[in-house]
Amino acid sequence: MERPLSPFMFPTWYRFQITSSLSIIHRLTGIALSAGSILLAWWLVAVAEGGRLFAATHAFIASPIGIALLFFWSMAFFYHLCSGIRHLAWDAGYGFEIRQAYLSGYAVLAATLLLTVLTWLYVYLA
Amino acid sequence: MAKTFIVSDTTALRDGNVLRRVRHLGSARDGLREWRLQRLTAVALIPLGLYFAASVLRLATSTRMTAATWLGSPVTALLIILFVLTGLAHMLVGLRSVYLDYVHARARLLLAELVLRAATALLAGASVLAVLKLFLNR
Question: What ipTM was estimated for this complex?
Answer without folding.
Answer: 0.89
